[in-house]
UniProtKB/TrEMBL annotation:
InterPro entries, sorted: Beta_Casp, MBL, Metallo-B-lactamas, RibonucZ/Hydroxyglut_hydro, RMMBL
Gene3D superfamilies hit by this protein: 3.40.50.10890, Ribonuclease Z/Hydroxyacylglutathione hydrolase-like (3.60.15.10)
Entry protein name: MBL fold metallo-hydrolase
Domain Metallo-beta-lactamase: 13-247
Origin: domain of life: Bacteria
Organism classification: Bacteria, Bacillati, Bacillota, Clostridia, Eubacteriales
Pfam families registered for this protein in UniProt: Beta-Casp (PF10996), Lactamase_B (PF00753), RMMBL (PF07521)
EC supergroup of this enzyme: hydrolase
Record domain Beta-Casp: where: 252-377
A GO molecular function held by the record: hydrolase activity
Keywords: Hydrolase
EC number(s) per entry: 3.-.-.-
Keyword hit for Zinc: no
């Protein structure tokens, strides 16, 4: 058994890890690099032969985790993509949309290349290829064990990050012993609208863990939501618009949930909200379809007859013509548009028409990767270049971490502490260098053995003696069955037993 790291190793995007077990090659995610990561690494090629891959186990539908699956298919992958039912439905629209963006951007670049007498370029993949690649997907419910091949079982657990997002448990039976690897995917932020909190896992021998906010804490969500309403009111009083660059899938629905609360409770009467993203429209419908994933609060609202993702004054724009009309609105509009990092899509047009206006507000509600337009804006750029034109940044800029879909440092450590015993190793991925180093230091202070995976690194899980592995699993089972011990006592007891066995 061996794990090789490349995507989201030493960076935030492009999630992709190769697990070799029992003669099979298994990818954990196959995501697209974005922002600076794309510039530095490129998306055109893989560090393995796609024809050799047997399975892709997909944690969730965000493009930095799923976005190169059509390219994998295009280059020869004909295996199976395993994911949750929600992820399958979201990928069905998101990957086709990604292919459309690839085609559109390459068409724009090629018009320039024709004038320059340069050879034409191909998109990474087309919308059609993305649609065909969906035939490789198989969706499963949460909490059900699946055995893709003999001696390898997986189970998807709710990660609370996005509709259908999953923590992946893997049970590997090899050399007469069983090893459990847990891959967190992206862990969700606690208490965010609509979705449940991340599932606590009972135990793991090894954990591959994201660290996006490994050195940062989010603000108080309740306080930020109140501030959000105040930002909208203040902007409207000044005669401006509120522009929200938002990921079409996840953050858009959470923003709609918050606005629904304001409008239903007359905190923002007679407001006009425009969701200017065909993908956001389609994904919102998928959210409505999979209401079984909702948390208790959202379920209660739905059962009372209040659709938490719909309210009077909400408009979903579809055509490019409808989108362009929004740029003529001078005041009193909330425009939610993708992409969330401002790298592509209709949001760039809305920024071009509103970013230079002092009376307007730009509200960021998601992570901004290094090197993206969104990151440049929140870091205080006075001017930015949009469609080849320099635009002054005069609007008021807000960055709301509380609505982030990622767990902060406390959320990450709390989830890890929920394990009944410390893993043999915690492998850190999916974070910039500062976030990973900060989280590594915190883990080591708390007694965890860990390392930060870099591109090209590999890890061979330690060959524990068979007797130790069997005894450890038995002890975990016994201790967890003792009802009169609380979680803290169980963890302490397991740590003492684990250390004692290792000393023998």
């Amino acid at each position: 058994m061996k794990i090789e790291f490349n995507g989201a190793a030493g960076c935030v995007t492009g999630s992709c890890h190769l697990l070799k077990v029992k003669g099979k090659n298994i990818l954990l995610d196959c995501g697209m690099y974005q922002g600076k990561d794309e510039h530095d690494r490129g998306n055109e090629s893989f560090f393995f032969n796609p024809k050799d891959i047997d399975f892709v186990i997909l944690s969730h539908a965000h493009i930095d985790h799923s976005g190169r699956i059509p390219l994998l298919y295009k280059q020869g992958f004909k295996g199976t993509v395993l994911c949750t039912e929600g992820t399958l439905d979201l990928c069905n629209v998101m990957l086709a949309d990604s292919g459309h963006i690839q085609e559109f951007e390459m068409e724009w670049k090629n018009r320039k290349r024709i004038r320059q007498g340069l050879p034409l370029l191909e998109p990474l993949y087309t919308s059609k290829i993305a649609q065909v690649s969906m035939y490789l997907f198989k969706g499963y419910p949460y909490d059900q064990w699946v055995e893709p091949f003999d001696g390898f079982k997986i189970r998807f657990r709710d990660a609370g990050h996005l509709l259908g997002s999953a923590i992946i448990e893997m049970l590997i039976s090899e050399d007469n012993k069983q090893t459990k690897i847990v891959y967190t995917g992206d862990l969700g932020n606690k208490h965010i609208p609509i979705l449940k909190d991340p599932t606590i896992i009972d135990y793991a021998d090894y954990v591959i863990m994201e660290t996006t906010y490994g050195n940062r804490l989010h603000g108080n969500l309740s306080s930020e939501l109140k501030d959000f309403a105040d930002i909208i009111k203040g902007t409207f009083r000044k005669g401006g618009n509120v522009i929200i660059p938002s990921f079409a899938v996840g953050r858009t629905q959470e923003v709609l949930y918050a606005l629904n609360n304001y409008i239903e409770n007359n905190m923002l009467p007679n407001v006009s909200v425009y969701v200017d993203s065909p993908l956001a429209s389609e994904s919102t419908a998928i959210f409505a379809k999979h209401h079984k994933y909702y948390d208790d609060e959202a379920t209660k609202l739905l059962n009372s007859g209040d659709d938490p993702l719909w309210f009077n004054g909400l408009t979903f724009t579809k055509s490019a013509e409808e989108s362009m009309k929004l740029n003529k609105i001078q005041k009193g509009a909330i425009i939610i548009s993708a992409s969330g990092m401002c790298e592509a899509g209709r949001i760039k047009h809305h920024l071009k028409h509103n970013l230079w206006r002092k009376e307007c507000s730009i509200v960021f509600v998601g992570y901004q990767a290094e090197g993206t337009l969104g990151r440049n804006i929140i870091e205080g750029a006075k001017k930015v270049r949009i469609f080849g034109e320099e635009i002054a940044v005069n609007a008021k800029i807000y960055n709301m971490h509380g609505l982030s879909g990622h767990a902060d440092q406390n959320g990450l450590i709390d989830w890890l502490e929920g394990l009944r015993a410390k893993p043999e190793k915690v492998i850190l991925v999916h974070g910039d260098s500062n976030a990973q180093q900060g989280f590594k230091e915190l883990l080591e202070l708390n007694g965890y053995s860990t390392f930060i995976a870099k591109p090209g690194d590999s890890f061979i899980p330690g060959k524990l003696p068979q007797k130790f592995s069997l005894v450890r699993n038995k002890i975990v089972s016994i201790v967890n069955s003792v009802e009169d011990l609380d979680a803290m006592d169980k963890n302490l007891l397991l740590d003492q037993i684990r250390d004692a066995i290792k000393d023998i």
